[in-house]
Amino acid sequence: MEPLADGQVWRMAETNLQVDMVGKLLVHYKLGKHNAVRISNSIGSKTNIEKFLKKNKAVLVKAIKPDVAKPVAEKKNGAAKKTTAAKK
């Protein structure tokens, strides 16, 4: 079984578990049915989530590679520029 990482989607018999963020001890995840419209966010310990996935024979469907660094958005100085159109 692969270690938990951000962005993973695990498929089980009737549900999907999407990992949002993995911390040192806790995991933020979404657990819902396959075609659910709204899924609530949950938090659980890494060990409990790993046991749950193993118990339910989860299969990793989607994994995002940890090598890909997310670009950091730079904040520009000052407010956004406003454009005004001259009326004739």
Descriptive account of the structure:
The structure is a single chain. The protein has a domain at 9-62: Nucleotidyltransferase, domain 5. The radius of gyration is 20 Å and the shape is globular. The protein is built from one helix and five strands; from the N terminus they run E-E-E-E-H-E. The model has no long low-confidence stretch (mean pLDDT 83). It has one helix spanning 46-55, and strands at residues 9-11, 15-22, 26-33, 41-45, 59-62. It has 88 residues and is mainly beta. A five-stranded antiparallel β-sheet has the order 4-3-2-1-5.
Summarize the SSE layout with pairings:
Blueprint: E1 9-11, E2 15-22, E3 26-33, E4 41-45, H1 46-55, E5 59-62
Antiparallel strand pairs: 1-2, 1-5, 2-3, 3-4
Round the mean pLDDT to the nearest integer and report it.
Answer: 83
Distance, first to last CA: 68 Å
The coarse silhouette is globular
Approximately how much beta-strand content do the residues carry?
25-35%
Helix content: 10-25%
**Uncertain residue segments:** none
- N to C succession of SSEs: EEEEHE
By DSSP (H or I, 4+ residues per run), the number of helices equals: 1
CATH topology heading of the domain at 9-62? Nucleotidyltransferase, domain 5
Summary keywords:
88 residues; mainly beta; Nucleotidyltransferase, domain 5; 1 helix; globular
